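PT: before anyone asks, these are the final sequences, not the draft ones from last week. 701 residues across everything. Please model them as a single complex and drop the result in this thread when it's through.
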Amino acid sequence: MATPVLDQFLGSVAELVQNRDGVKLQDFLQIEPPLSDIYMRMIDELRQHYASGPQKDAELLRRCEGLVPRSKGSSSWTAFPTFLKLYLTFLRDVNVGNLLDTYNFLKGLVNQCVLALGDSQMGIIVLHTVLYLSKVLAKLAMGLDRRPDLIANILRMEGQADREENVEKVTLVEQSANVVREAFIKCLTDRTGTPGPQGKPEGKRVGIYLMANLCLKLLFQCGKLRNAEQMFASISAQSPPLTYFPASQRVTYLYYLGRYLFSNNLFFPAQIALQAAYDQCHRQAVSQRHLILTYLIPCNIILGRFPSQTLLQRSEAQGLGERFGPLCQLIARGNYIAFREHLSVRSPAADWFARKGILLALRNRCEILVWRSFARKVFILGGFHGDPQAQAQRGPPPYLYLEKLVVATEWLRSQHGRSLNGTSVAHKSYGSQVISTPTDPDYDGLTDSTGITTDSELLDKFGDFLAPDGFFDDRGQWQENIPGQLVDGDPDPDYEGYQLDPYSEYDAADQSSLLMQEIESILASLLTQGLMRGYLTHRKPRFAIPGARLRGALPTGFPNVWQTISARESEDSSVPGWVQPPASAAFGAGTAALAGGSRVVNLKGARPVGVQ
Amino acid sequence: MSNSTPAQTKAEPSDQPQQQQKPQVLEEDDEFEDFPVEDWPQEEAEQPAGSTANGGSEHLWEESWDDDDAAEDFSKQLKEELKKVEASH
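LR: through. Structure below.
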């Protein structure tokens, strides 16, 4: 025999398949350089006796076909010999100097291995091999993603294809995510044993979260989170409970699930998933714990809970205190302009938040907390706290004149106006009255009004648009236009008095009422969300806090944020995408209470029949 | 100037690899690494008992963070401002 190493290799593979030893089989099917000496000798043999060509490839395939046992009654596992032949030709032909070719070659190999995985009897033998090859593929794709110079060629070609066929560009990372998703589906839909949420991880189902986690990693990498939605839905419907899987898979999965929920603005379930990931993560896995905290902390801040000093002093929280500490201070202080400046695109602090993908969530979700702190401070300093003498029923409830909030907001604006450019900020004639920071730098230099008062000035400036030399009509015919004449004709005299400015009816004296209206809306929003408690009066604008006698005005009118939000959100404590054991099996941990919680009938609002 | 030029050229070779490495480190930082072990008992996830006074149930989250410090600058200035309004009314 001229190919001793190859013969020995194929013999061993046959034996491993016979014994269904998937772990060892994966160990045999090495592809990553540097390969050991024995592989190099086998590659030499392949190149000598099975040089590239259809005839030799067919011979090689025939040798591989002999390895699969032909069991009675079931069709033979043809996908495996094809895969093995592809593996051997990969070793023989691959040129790792060309990473893009290597990638495409490897993708074909993984695809074939996934086909082999699909066999209901034998598929499980290649589960570990699929995972191993997929990981190498993922690493390669992510590496290429960071080297645009190496894939410039296909980027250019795809660019042309885009223009021609108008199809969405699929990056290498996304392509590999799609390959891994196929493997994930094969694992999830394995019918051996008891499938579904009642089942245990048997057969290929042991690979559900291994594949899901790899796929999620790739989807996060290529920014196609939306593609993960179907995966989470399939897991919810078909996976055995997560708790039956090993800790490393649970923690990784809960991390990605938490981040997915976070990016969908589902902060409460995200918090539950990330907290569970943190709690179950090995205490020595500092880098993983650090990443979990990077998302768990902003999640909690949005829900009204700040990281404690104890947490921030842990080794895995290193560096996070300086990121989130100032933000928490700004929220508690209630200076909304300072808060906006801290998270504006110009702020040095915003860069890190943006890179982590949490900037917009923090900016949009925390500002309401800043306004709560602001209203609370103004109430403390300028509100009526109730008459301590008038213990009886007669005294008015504590209240705050909203005029004071208006004054405080104007003062805040003037403070920041001065600090920004040395002059105090003038009233704006329209738009939001609480925004005083410069908007997008792209709009620098634009003023509120164009300064145009006469028609001739208007035509001077915008004539090319309002009165061009000609235009295409609705049938695409070119129509000449008399110079100076509006193409749309003169405006109807009925509309002459109107302008396209919704605030045009206000004059300068109304400016403070504009601000008042905006303050009223903000407080109404706080009340609707339960972040403040009481009512607003509009005629003489006030925020009143009834029923404050027992607990005091502050705790009544400004209830604890976290307690308010968590009480509301806990009504449904299930986390989409996280499969829990069936309720009857869930004694012990808090899961029993959680699972039953939603079934408690709330009788708070029930009243006897006939009572008004 | 004449002194700083050779020093700068000298520093360049060591600067370059650093610059090349920097973005790589950031990327790595963002990647959720594979765990070196497959499974572990829950005890190994928790902070070792005894490292804190009250065992595992440490105080990790502040639910009460309202800022009631009237002596702090922002509050003091705000108070002055609100006083002015009351005086003028």
